[in-house]
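> example.struct
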């Protein structure tokens, strides 16, 4: 059975993942700076690998149902590195949503438990939009 304890490797992995998201955000804010975007991608992938382990990362990205997302994310990363950051980020975003689509329900339950955000999500108008688009 998988261990859910928080050892040093997982802490470093979560930190790298967070920095990866932060650098990617900065890359978008600074008009698609390819250096920041590439660094964000590298930190994100290395952080995920450290958090869940190299073998689990490879199994996740190489699942048959994840091929479309993996290829899209990889091609997007390649486009960012060669200097086409807008096209690369569009492909990466699509790949990210395809790869992590199974985690959205878990994320929605978690978001509802956050004090202010949970209250906002449970408002009738927001709930009707979520039901319409099957987010919740």
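> example.seq
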């Amino acid at each position: 059975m998988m261990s859910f304890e928080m050892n040093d490797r997982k802490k470093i992995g979560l930190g790298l993942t967070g920095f990866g998201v932060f650098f990617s955000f900065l890359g978008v804010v600074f008009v698609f700076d390819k250096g920041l975007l590439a660094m964000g991608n590298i930190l994100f992938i290395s952080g995920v690998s450290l958090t869940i382990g190299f073998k689990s990362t490879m199994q996740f990205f190489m699942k048959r149902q994840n091929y479309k997302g993996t290829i899209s994310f990889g091609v997007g990363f390649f486009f960012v590195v060669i200097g086409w950051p807008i096209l690369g980020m569009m492909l990466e975003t699509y790949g990210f949503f395809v790869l992590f689509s199974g985690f959205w329900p878990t994320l929605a339950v978690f978001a509802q438990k956050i004090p202010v955000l949970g209250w906002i999500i449970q408002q009738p108008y927001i709930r009707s939009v979520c039901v319409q688009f099957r987010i919740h």
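> remarks
The first helix runs from residue 8 to 29.
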